[in-house]
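Many introductory courses stop at the sequence. We go one step further.
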Amino acid sequence: MNLAIYIIAGLISGVATGFVGLSAAVIIVPLFSVVLNMDPYVAIGIALTSDIIGSGSSAITYAHHNNLNVKGAWPMLIVVLATTLFSTYLSSLGNTETLAPIMNITAILLGINFFYSGSHPNPLESFHFKKSTLISVICAIPIGFVCGYIGAGGGIMLLIVLQVILNYDTKTAVGTSVFIMAFIAMVGGAGHIILGGTNLQALGITAGCGFIGAKFAAILANHISQKKLNYIIGVFLIFFGIILSILYHFN
């Protein structure tokens, strides 16, 4: 049972990362904490460590297709890493039992966001922000906090900042966001493992399957409509979050 969950979680989270830069924690943390009764703090460490491989391999693929641009994102990267490290420590002091339902709700909200963006224009596109390193750095602070504390949402928030504030096109924004996420995951994952320990079997299997899923998805993402991807990921996350919320309620 555990082995099957590790494989499924790794493959699905890897595919989600490769397609749209979704953090592996959105899939792995609620699945491990609800179905396997794993400590959510440990699950976040496993998810972030898996993200290192998944996001890293995805970034390489996007770079191969000239869809990676880190030139204007370095200040944001530095700030988000520092904030992630700090919030990882804060997370270790909190009540980990509250993290599972937070992750379930996060999955549903992100699913709605994906589905909506697949059928409607992004409401933020009506705003015209001047390219601003300062604004991107300010936005990096809450992004790093969320990544370090609950391990999820960073990829999507980075995607929004890169597109709306730094004016990146969609695929370049995805490629750059997974590149940044690889570094965020490295800092956050190390912090969680050092402070909370880990499950080596779950870590190895999940990370390996995550690499396979992310590599396949990143290649496909460079040849498919972003609108179709949003529909698929959105519907999946909504149902995934609802099912896990029900399981958590009766657990």
